[in-house]
Amino acid sequence: MRILVIHGPNLNMLVKRDKATYGEKTLDEIDALVKKEAQALSVEAVTFQSNHEGALVDFIQEQADSARGVVINPGALTHYGFALLDALIDSKLPIIEVHLSNIYRREEWRARSVIAPITRGQISGLGWRGYIAALQVLVAELKAEASRAGS
Protein backbone atom coordinates (compact mmCIF):
# COMPACT_ATOMS: atom_id res chain seq x y z
CA MET A 1 0.00 0.00 0.00
CA ARG A 2 1.42 3.37 -1.07
CA ILE A 3 0.58 6.61 0.73
CA LEU A 4 1.52 9.97 -0.77
CA VAL A 5 2.92 12.44 1.76
CA ILE A 6 2.88 15.88 0.16
CA HIS A 7 4.43 19.09 1.46
CA GLY A 8 3.55 22.48 -0.02
CA PRO A 9 5.37 25.80 -0.29
CA ASN A 10 8.07 26.84 2.17
CA LEU A 11 8.17 23.53 4.03
CA ASN A 12 11.63 23.00 2.55
CA MET A 13 12.69 25.92 4.76
CA LEU A 14 11.91 24.31 8.12
CA VAL A 15 14.43 25.20 10.86
CA LYS A 16 15.22 28.38 8.95
CA ARG A 17 11.69 29.60 9.73
CA ASP A 18 10.24 30.47 13.14
CA LYS A 19 11.12 27.43 15.26
CA ALA A 20 8.49 28.29 17.87
CA THR A 21 5.83 28.00 15.16
CA TYR A 22 7.21 25.27 12.88
CA GLY A 23 9.45 23.21 15.16
CA GLU A 24 13.09 22.22 15.05
CA LYS A 25 13.08 19.35 12.54
CA THR A 26 14.07 19.69 8.92
CA LEU A 27 11.78 18.40 6.20
CA ASP A 28 14.27 15.59 5.54
CA GLU A 29 14.07 14.59 9.21
CA ILE A 30 10.27 14.62 9.10
CA ASP A 31 10.27 12.55 5.90
CA ALA A 32 12.64 10.02 7.50
CA LEU A 33 10.34 9.70 10.53
CA VAL A 34 7.31 9.30 8.25
CA LYS A 35 9.05 6.59 6.22
CA LYS A 36 10.12 4.78 9.40
CA GLU A 37 6.53 4.80 10.67
CA ALA A 38 5.26 3.67 7.26
CA GLN A 39 7.64 0.73 7.37
CA ALA A 40 6.36 -0.16 10.86
CA LEU A 41 2.81 -0.06 9.44
CA SER A 42 3.88 -2.22 6.46
CA VAL A 43 3.14 0.49 3.91
CA GLU A 44 5.22 2.68 1.62
CA ALA A 45 5.29 6.45 2.08
CA VAL A 46 6.20 8.43 -1.03
CA THR A 47 7.20 11.96 -0.03
CA PHE A 48 7.23 15.05 -2.22
CA GLN A 49 7.66 18.78 -1.66
CA SER A 50 7.35 21.72 -4.00
CA ASN A 51 6.96 25.46 -3.76
CA HIS A 52 4.93 25.38 -6.97
CA GLU A 53 1.27 24.46 -7.10
CA GLY A 54 1.60 23.07 -10.62
CA ALA A 55 4.34 20.66 -9.53
CA LEU A 56 2.13 19.43 -6.69
CA VAL A 57 -0.76 18.95 -9.14
CA ASP A 58 1.53 17.07 -11.54
CA PHE A 59 2.77 14.81 -8.74
CA ILE A 60 -0.76 13.95 -7.62
CA GLN A 61 -1.88 13.26 -11.19
CA GLU A 62 1.16 11.07 -11.86
CA GLN A 63 0.99 9.12 -8.58
CA ALA A 64 -2.71 8.82 -7.74
CA ASP A 65 -3.37 5.59 -9.62
CA SER A 66 -0.67 3.74 -7.68
CA ALA A 67 -1.55 5.16 -4.25
CA ARG A 68 -4.23 4.42 -1.66
CA GLY A 69 -4.27 7.72 0.22
CA VAL A 70 -2.77 11.16 0.78
CA VAL A 71 -1.35 12.98 3.77
CA ILE A 72 -0.87 16.61 2.78
CA ASN A 73 0.42 19.79 4.33
CA PRO A 74 -0.56 22.30 1.64
CA GLY A 75 1.31 25.16 3.34
CA ALA A 76 0.01 28.53 2.17
CA LEU A 77 -1.94 26.76 -0.61
CA THR A 78 -4.29 25.66 2.17
CA HIS A 79 -6.07 28.98 1.82
CA TYR A 80 -6.26 29.50 -1.94
CA GLY A 81 -4.94 26.42 -3.77
CA PHE A 82 -7.92 25.67 -5.98
CA ALA A 83 -5.88 23.85 -8.64
CA LEU A 84 -4.43 21.70 -5.85
CA LEU A 85 -7.94 21.13 -4.51
CA ASP A 86 -9.16 19.99 -7.94
CA ALA A 87 -6.23 17.57 -8.31
CA LEU A 88 -6.96 16.08 -4.91
CA ILE A 89 -10.65 15.71 -5.75
CA ASP A 90 -9.82 14.10 -9.10
CA SER A 91 -7.46 11.63 -7.40
CA LYS A 92 -10.46 10.11 -5.59
CA LEU A 93 -8.09 9.20 -2.76
CA PRO A 94 -8.82 9.57 0.95
CA ILE A 95 -6.95 12.59 2.33
CA ILE A 96 -5.81 13.80 5.73
CA GLU A 97 -4.63 17.42 5.95
CA VAL A 98 -1.76 18.24 8.32
CA HIS A 99 -0.37 21.51 9.65
CA LEU A 100 2.67 21.81 11.90
CA SER A 101 1.25 24.84 13.70
CA ASN A 102 -2.23 25.31 15.07
CA ILE A 103 -3.69 27.34 12.23
CA TYR A 104 -6.64 28.33 14.43
CA ARG A 105 -4.38 30.14 16.91
CA ARG A 106 -2.72 32.26 14.25
CA GLU A 107 -3.90 34.98 11.88
CA GLU A 108 -7.60 34.75 11.06
CA TRP A 109 -6.99 34.09 7.36
CA ARG A 110 -4.99 30.94 8.21
CA ALA A 111 -8.05 29.30 9.77
CA ARG A 112 -9.77 28.90 6.39
CA SER A 113 -8.80 25.81 4.42
CA VAL A 114 -10.12 25.19 0.92
CA ILE A 115 -8.76 21.63 1.24
CA ALA A 116 -10.42 20.62 4.55
CA PRO A 117 -13.95 20.05 3.16
CA ILE A 118 -12.72 17.16 0.99
CA THR A 119 -10.58 15.47 3.65
CA ARG A 120 -11.35 12.75 6.13
CA GLY A 121 -9.85 14.99 8.76
CA GLN A 122 -7.33 17.64 9.66
CA ILE A 123 -4.51 17.55 12.21
CA SER A 124 -3.25 20.96 13.25
CA GLY A 125 -0.76 22.06 15.87
CA LEU A 126 1.01 18.80 16.74
CA GLY A 127 4.23 19.65 14.92
CA TRP A 128 5.95 16.81 13.06
CA ARG A 129 3.97 14.29 15.10
CA GLY A 130 0.87 15.35 13.16
CA TYR A 131 2.28 13.62 10.08
CA ILE A 132 2.77 10.40 12.06
CA ALA A 133 -0.74 10.59 13.51
CA ALA A 134 -2.22 11.25 10.08
CA LEU A 135 -0.37 8.29 8.57
CA GLN A 136 -1.44 5.99 11.41
CA VAL A 137 -5.10 6.99 11.15
CA LEU A 138 -5.21 6.83 7.36
CA VAL A 139 -3.55 3.41 7.19
CA ALA A 140 -5.80 2.03 9.95
CA GLU A 141 -8.90 3.26 8.10
CA LEU A 142 -7.71 1.86 4.77
CA LYS A 143 -6.91 -1.52 6.32
CA ALA A 144 -10.30 -1.60 8.06
CA GLU A 145 -12.06 -0.76 4.80
CA ALA A 146 -10.13 -3.48 2.98
CA SER A 147 -11.01 -5.97 5.70
CA ARG A 148 -14.71 -5.09 5.51
CA ALA A 149 -14.66 -5.34 1.71
CA GLY A 150 -13.02 -8.77 1.92
CA SER A 151 -15.47 -10.23 4.42
Task: Produce the secondary structure layout.
Blueprint: E1 2-7, H1 19-22, H2 27-40, E2 44-49, H3 53-63, E3 69-73, H4 82-91, E4 95-99, E5 121-124, H5 129-150
Helix pairs in contact: 2-5, 3-4
User: What's the CATH architecture?
Assistant: 3-Layer(aba) Sandwich
Percent helix, as a range, is: 40-55%
Task: Kindly provide the name of the CATH class.
Answer: Alpha Beta
- Tell me the name of the CATH homologous superfamily: Dehydroquinase, class II
Report strand order across the widest sheet. Answer: 2-1-3-4-5
Mean pLDDT: 94
Low-confidence stretches: none
Largest sheet: 5 strands, parallel
The general outline is: globular
Output the structural class: alpha/beta
Please give a structural write-up:
Helices cover 40% and strands 17% of the residues. With 151 residues, it is of the alpha/beta class. It is globular and about 50 Å long. The protein has one domain: Dehydroquinase, class II (Rossmann fold). It starts with a strand and ends with a helix. The chain is built from five helices and five strands; from the N terminus they run E-H-H-E-H-E-H-E-E-H. The mean pLDDT is 94. It has a five-stranded parallel β-sheet with strand order 2-1-3-4-5, sandwiched between helices.
